[in-house]
Design goal:
Blueprint (H helix, E strand, L loop, with lengths): L2 H17 L5 E8 L2 E6 L2 E6 L2 H20 L2 H4 L6 E8 L2 E10 L6 H13 L5 E8 L4 H7 L8 H4 L9
Helix pairs in contact: 2-4
């Protein structure tokens, strides 16, 4: 992907995101454990984080969060929060995840923040305790999530597999 292709994709993604109806957008940064150790015969085996495992961790986070908010309707009727995110950094070296989650009106801001924290901490295999949450984000956060800098492969680092739009 050339720089011009990346710039065109970035512009199209930002336009697409701005056209969505974000009622109560919350800006979230989730961090990952970059590696984990397992006991083995000769000591410990260290497994580094991969992008696939990071995507699976975000998917698990979303399922837990949607279940907390919508109960069984999250599974029965596929009710979900509007969500967009992107990976930044490199696996094994400060990989983290920036996302926008649209808070439902019926959930209080503080309660929603606690739901996000609890849901992420339940992803105990790769989810790290460092979480940054900003209530009432604006279009600037959408720009930040979709930025070019910090993404090794722009097309891959935009996380369409976990995105959901109302």
């Amino acid at each position: 992907m050339t720089l011009q292709d990346k710039l065109a994709a970035n512009k199209a993604i930002i336009k697409f995101l701005k056209d969505k109806d974000w009622k109560n957008p919350v800006a979230v940064t989730l961090t990952f454990k970059q590696r984990r150790a397992f006991p083995s015969e000769g000591g410990f085996f260290v497994q580094p984080l991969t992008l696939t495992e990071a995507e699976q961790t975000v998917r698990r986070f979303r399922r837990i969060l949607d279940k907390k908010i919508f109960g069984n309707a999250a599974y029965r009727y596929r009710k979900r929060c509007q969500f967009f995110g992107a990976f930044e950094g490199h696996p094994g070296s400060n990989l983290h995840y920036h996302c926008v989650i649209d808070r439902p009106n019926r959930v209080e801001p503080f309660q929603f923040e606690m739901m996000i924290r609890d849901s992420w901490l339940r992803c105990n295999v790769w989810g790290n305790v460092q979480i940054h949450i900003e209530r009432n984000s604006d279009n600037g956060w959408l720009h930040y999530c979709a930025k070019l800098r910090g993404k090794s492969d722009y097309a891959r680092d935009i996380d369409w597999s976990n995105a959901h739009f109302a």
